[in-house]
Amino acid sequence: MDADKQKIIDLFNENVKGKIPDTSSANSRHDGKEGHWLEQQMGVVANASNSPDIYGYEMKNTTKSKTSFGDWSADEYIFKGGNAEISRDEFLEIFGKPNENKGGRCSWSGEPCPKIGVYNNFGQILEIDELGNVKAIYSYSEDQRTNKSEIIPESLQKENLTLAKWNSESLKDKLERKFNQKGWFKCEKGSDGTYQTINFGGPINYDNWLQLVREGIVFFDSGMYQTNPRNYSMWRANNNLWESLITSRY
Question: By residue range, what is the domain housing residue 193?
């Protein structure tokens, strides 16, 4: 067995296995508090570096239904740059959806978030071009909103309008820096809420990952909303994919 893999297994057995995360000192409203506890137990220093978490392996925590590859913003947005016609807030008002429970705050999440292969009711779709770039596309004719002529400025009432673009080189670098070194592992809880197993998967390269995007298995899960500058551009897959990629369990 790879010595670094054994070190990770030893850390898990010594510091994590059989335990329930102690998050009593964390902000109760913070969704990632259990993940921070796990990082501390495994000796992972929280940082924004786009590199594997520990000994060349990317670490994932147990989740209920879907697990993230990363929070990877697009390289280009229609609201970004010197020639931008609209601001970020206007983008969210035009191409997002208001949340009445949040005082009408608009977000590019849920229903407006584009998926591969089919236009949603907001006229948006995710496409992959011949160079492997991923694009969020808007087409006015596909927009099913009855008041779209009032929402969409005349200058944006177009077909195949690029709202966001992830360059293939950038996505490849982000994906492979994290997942294409030695691979990844996921710490899983048992039914009693304690951590019980650590599961390993092999390296993942961009071509294989992009094929999963084409098939809709890996999907864009945007959480962008007004009043917060973070884009929350998550790329995720349901846990049945992660389960299928496991090569060893301990």
Answer: 3-71+170-222+231-249
